[in-house]
User: Fold these one by one.
Assistant:
Number 1:
Amino acid sequence: MKFRRKPRETVDINLASLIDVVFILLLFFVVTTTFTRETQLRVDLPESVSGTPADDQSKPLDIAISADGVFSVNNQILAKSDLASLMDALQKEANGDTNRPLSISADGKTQHQSVVTAMDAAGKLGFSHLRMTTIEAAPPAP
C-alpha cells in the first residue's frame, strides 16, 4: 500500500518580532544607562624658570596649609581642619565670586590628603583658576 505524502510546507522564521524585541532592549539599555561626568580642576602650575607673579586684577584667595595639616584662608587660621569649615571660609572670603584665582600654598612636608581636601573644596565651590605656589629650587652644588 502506497500512502500519499503531503507536500511539505516551507518553514520560515518571522524576524519582524525579533527585530522589535531587539530595538526595545536597545532602547531600555540606552535609557537606563547612567553616564558620569568627571569634573576636573584646571591647575596652573607656576613655572620655575620665570618666577614672576601672575598679572591678575582681582585679589587672589590664598589657602595655606602647615606641615601638620592646619588650614588658613587669607591668613586667618581655621578652627577645624576639615572640608566643611574650609568650604565655609572660602565662601565667606570669595563672596560668591568663583572667578577669582585661588592659590594653595602647602608646606613641603604636608600630607597629600590635606592638599587634596583643599582642591576638593575649591572644586565643589566652582573655582576654576587654581594655582599651586612653590619656591624656586636652589641650583645644585658643583
Number 2:
Amino acid sequence: MKRCVLTVLFLTLSILGTVSAALSDQQRTALVIGNADYAFAPLANPVNDAVAMAKALDEAGFNVILQTDVSRQGMKAALRAFGEKLSADNSIGMFYFAGHGIQIKGENFLLPLGAEFPDEETVKTQAVAVSEAVDLMTTSHDGLNIIVLDACRNNPLTGNSKGLSRIDSSARLFVSYSTSPGAVALDGSGVNSPYTKHLATSIKTPALSLEETFKRTLKGVYQDTGGEQTPWISSTFFGDFKFIAGDASGTLDKPVRVAATSSIGKALAESLARNGPARRISGVYRVAGSNPDGSGYSGMLSITPEGRKVHLTWWIGDDVFTGVGEFAGRMLVVNWGDKHPVVYTFDGEKALDGEWADGSASERLTLFSRATQNNLSLLEGTYSSAGRNPDGSTYTGTVDISRQGRKFTLVWQVGADSYRGDGVLEGNVLTVDWGDTTPVVYALTGDGTLQGLWSGGRGSENLQFVDGR
C-alpha cells in the first residue's frame, strides 16, 4: 500500500531571559513510536522510520525510549514514563510518532494498534490526542520540547485526503510538516519516507543550527520528489539550537547548545518575540540575485505584514512579482507563484539570504529602511526631499502629501520640475505610482520620516516632515 506521510514538528522553547550555563549540560530524553501493522490499513515504513529516528537521536545525545506497533494502553504508558523522566531530569524532550493520524474538527489524533475505528467518536475515545503529548511535555518541565509526527495524510477510515489540521506557531513553537498543509506526501522508494530520511541525516550532521537542519531537510525532500513534495515549516522561534554541536570542520564539542539569543542579535530576537516577526521585518529592501542560468539581476522589494505572514513584492526590471512568506524560526519560506519556493535565512539584522528549494538560484535582500512597528499616522503636509538619482547625482526639493480616503497624493517640486503620484499605505510601507516603470516605495519610520527607493532600487529618497495643515 502506498504510504502517505505527514510530518508535524513542534519545537517549544522560551527565547526570553538568559539561559543558564547548566542548560548546556542538560539531559536529553526522547520517546519514539512507530506503528505500521494496522489491521485496517497497514503501512510500509513507520517502524523503519522510528528506528532510523531513534538511531539519529541516540547519536545526538538523547536517551531514547523506542516503541513499535504499540496499543493505546502501551502508548499511554510510554507517555507517562516519558513525562516522569522529563520531570525527574528536567530533560530536553523529544516525542516522535510515525503511523496513522487523523484530524477531527481541528484536533489531531494518533492511531494505536489493536483497535477498530468505525466512526469519529470511536477515534476520540480510542486514539491518542496530540494535545495530550504536548500538555504532558510542557507541564513536566520548563525546558525545550520537540514533537515530530510522521502520520498519514489520507484518512484511512473514510478515504478522504483531509490530512492533519494545521497548527499555529508562536515564539515558543516550531512547526514543520513533511508537505504543505492539505497536500499528500510521498512514501518514497526506499525503506524510509523522504522526510524522515533527510531529517535523520540532518540531525546526525554536526554543527547544524535548527534552521539549517530543516532547510537541508526541505531541500532534500523537494529534490528527491521532483518538486511533488515541499515540507512546510512555520515558527517565530529565534533561539539557537543544535542537535549535535561542533564547528564547520565537524569537530565536536558538548552535545547540547541551547541559547535564548542568536547571531541575529539579542535586540532583534527580543523584539521579534515581543512584536512578531511579520511587523519586525517590514520595510524596503534592495535585491541582488542569480538566475538558474547564472545571469544576475537586481531590483527592490517591499515586505508588509499579512497577519502572521508577510507579503512580498519585487520590482525587477519591468517585472513585478508577489509572494507570501511564512516564518520558520530564523527562516522565511516564500511561495511566489513559481514551482520552487524560496527559503531565506536571516543574516544579522539587516539582510536575508535566499535560495530556491531546488538549489538552482539564490537571492540576497538587504534592508534599506525598516518600517515602524507602531501604529503611526502618515502626516499630511509639506516634506523636504533629499534624494540620489540612479546616476549618482543628488537632488533636493519639497513634496506635498495629501490624503483622499485610503490613498495619498504626492506632488514633488524639484527645481523647475514637478511630479505627481498616487500612493497606498500598507503596513507602514507607502507605494507610490508616479508614472515611471517602477514606483517609489517608502518605509514610514518611527520618527515620521519616509525613506524610499525608486528606479528599481538605483535611486533613493528621504522625506522629512516640515509643515502640516
Number 3:
Amino acid sequence: MEKTKKQEIIFAVIKILAYLSVVFLATLLGYIFFRGFKVINIRFLTDVPRNGITEGGIFPAILGTFYLVLVSFIFAVPIGILAGVYIAEYTEENRFTQFIRVSVNILSGVPSIVFGLFGLAIFVNKMHFGVSILSGGLTLGILILPTVIQATIEALRSVPYSFREASFGIGATKWQTVKNIVLPTGISGILTGIILSIGRAAGETAPILFTAATFYTGRLPKSIFDEVMALPYLIYGLMTTGTFPDKQIPIAYGASTILLLLVFTMSIIAIIIRLKSRRNRKW
C-alpha cells in the first residue's frame, strides 16, 4: 500500500511538471506569435529593409537564411550519409570504430560558437572565401554533420539483419544489399534526421556571426561569395542595437515568428515522414 501511494505521488509530480513545461512553452510561443503576427504582411515578407531596418521588410534575411541552409545541406548530407553507411555497414566493432563514434558524439556537443571560430579561421581567413554565403554554409554544414551521421547510423541499425541475410542468400553483394535493401528501408529515419538538422542550421546565430551574416544590407546576394542577412542574426541585431527600439523591436518579433514557423514546418515534415514510415513497415 505504501509503495502504491509513493508511486501515485511520483506520477502526480511528473504529470504536474509535464503540464508546467507545456504551459511555459505555450506562453513563450504565444507571446512571440502575438507580437509577431501584428507586423507580418505581404510587404514584410517581400520587401527589403529601409531606413536602418525601421521600415520595409525582411526578404533579404529570409533569402539569406535559405541560401545558407542550402549550402549546408549540399555539403553535409552526402558526406554524413556516406559516413553513416560506412560506420554502420562496413566497419567491425573494435576500438577504432568506438573512437569514431565517440568523436562524432563529442563533435555534436561542441558549442556552436566554436564552429563559428573554426569557420572564421579556416574558410574566411585560410581559404580566403571571405565573409560569404559559402563560408557560412560550410560552417553550418560541419555543425549539422554529426547529426546526419548519427541519424544515418541509427536508421540503418534499425533495419532487421534478416533483410541482409535474405539479400545475401540470393547472391547479392554487400553494396547491392546496402543500396537496394538497407538504405531504402531506413530512408525515413535518415530523412527525419536531415530535416531536423536543417531546422537547427536555420536557427543558429553563432556560426554565421563571423562567417556569413551582415546586420543590414539593402541588396540581394549575387554569388556565394557575397555576405548576406540572415534571420537569426537579424533578430539578434534588432534586439541589441537599440537605435530605434519602438520600430525595430516589432520587426524582431516578426522575424522571430517567421523563423519559428520555418523550424516548426521542418519538424512537422519530419514527424509526418516518421509516421508514414511506421505505417508502411511490414515487420
Number 4:
Amino acid sequence: MSTEQFNFAVLTISDRCSNGERQDESGPLVKKLVEQNLNGHCNFYEIVPDDREGIENDLKLLCDNVDCALVLTTGGTGLAPRDHTPEATMAIMEREIPGIAENIRHAGLKHTPLAILSRGVCGLRNQTIIINLSGSPKAVSEQLETLYPILPHAIESAAGRTKDCARD
C-alpha cells in the first residue's frame, strides 16, 4: 500500500438521496474507507439524481477541473430503468479498465449470486480513474476491499509515475 496521499472524489447517484427521501450511507462510507485504508483525501463529495446527462457533466467536471486521481461513484449500477451510471461513465471515459469491474463482480460472487447483475464499469479520463461501485453500504465495503491491493499502483500508473511493473 502506498503511503503517498492522493485526492479523490465521491459521487453518490440516487434519486431518493438527492431529493432527501433517504440518507446517503454509501458515499460517506466510501470516503471513510478510502481515507482509512489508502491514505486518500476526499476533496469532493456530492449526491446527485439518476440523470445521465447530469452524471456525465459531473464526471467531466471532476476529471477535467478538480484535482483528483480517483472518482468513486456509488449507485445507479443495477437494472432499474433509472440506473444510468455505467452509460454516463462510458460516455465520458477515454479508456476502459475492464479488469477492475470484472474483479469487483467476481469477488462479489463470494457474498451473493446477485453480484453479476452489477453493470458497473471502470475507466480513465485524462489521468483520473473512475470506478462505479454499487449503491448498498455492504456492497461498497466488499467492493473496496478487493481494490485496496491495486489502487495505489493504478493511481501511480495513471499519473505516469511508475517506472517498472515487473516483479523482483
